[in-house]
Amino acid sequence: MYRIIVFAIFIIVVLVVPSAAEDIFVKDMDEIRLAYLEYSGPFHKFTDTREELLTMMAEEGVKPEGHCLVIIHNYPASFKEGGGFSAEVCYPIGEQRVGIDAEFREITLPQTSLLYIEYHGEYSDIMEAYDALRDQAWEGDYQITGDFREILLAPPGAETPPTVEVQLPVETRKE
Predict the structure, then answer these.
(1) How many CB atoms lie within 10 A of CB 26?
(2) Measured between alpha carbons, how far apart are the two ends of the chain, in Å?
(3) pLDDT tens track for 131-152
(4) Domain extents in the chain
(5) Domain covering 20-172 in this structure, CATH number
(6) Which residue in 76, 6, 60, 70 sits closest to 36, CA to CA?
(7) What is the pLDDT of residues 29-84, one digit of tens each?
(8) Could you give the residue ranges of the DSSP H alpha helices within 44-126?
(9) Which phi-psi region, left, alpha or beta, contains residue 87 (left: φ > 0; alpha: ψ -120 to 50)?
(10) Which of 97, 119, 153, 155 is in the most buried spot, having the most CB atoms within 10 Å?
(11) What is the pTM of this model?
């Protein structure tokens, strides 16, 4: 009986549960203009910066035109216990302009190709998505061309974990 249960679990885990690599996709992203604030500090406090940016944008009459995008500069150290988190917390702004006296800045990200994976779960486990993207780039025909990005598709609620699209800018390696 014990062997049957172990075998059944093996079948479910190995044959039914897809690997992260099966959930990785490639897409092209057009050039995008963003309003941003720099953040450096503990990972769990970067959401305060997101709210701060939204408040500043509203005061300047700049409206977000999409989901929050976070550009993470020091992966994987940023996710380790006690690691410093360095990022830009951003919102797309389209053709709107940021005033020179604004407390936040604007940046234009160039057109790029992205490896991406949609992550559903607790932030404490999100490293799995990052590792899967990095491994796919290293093992595939890709050269990493920028820092990891997160698009917060659904913010965490009291009862629900977040939904995040984790992205890695890449280009096809030239032989």
Answers:
(1) 13
(2) 54
(3) 999 999 999 889 999 999 999 9
(4) 20-172
(5) 3.20.80.10
(6) 70
(7) 999 999 999 998 877 777 889 999 999 999 999 999 999 999 998 776 555 555 67
(8) 46-60
(9) beta
(10) 119
(11) 0.81
